[in-house]
Design goal:
CATH class: Alpha Beta
Strand content: 25-35%
Shape: globular
Order of helices and strands: EHHEEH
Structural class: alpha+beta
Radius of gyration: 12 Å
Helix content: 25-40%
Amino acid sequence: MSISVLGLSYKTSPIGIRERIAFGADIVVAALRDLLQQPGVTEGVILSTCNRTEIYCNLDNSGSISLADWLWKFQYDYR
């Protein structure tokens, strides 16, 4: 098992990018469900505030996920 983390904050990204990847109350549940359905993901957490977005997930050995690719696809498909 391994833990993967992806995060952006006001220290690492301009506001335009943070706004595009923010998870509001209207989509965070759907996003977490989608994340947990990805191959190899056994647990996950999404933390999204006005200044940062962080995604944590526990992976088993059966699959590999790129959190950046998942985030891009989910945000693109959902919006």
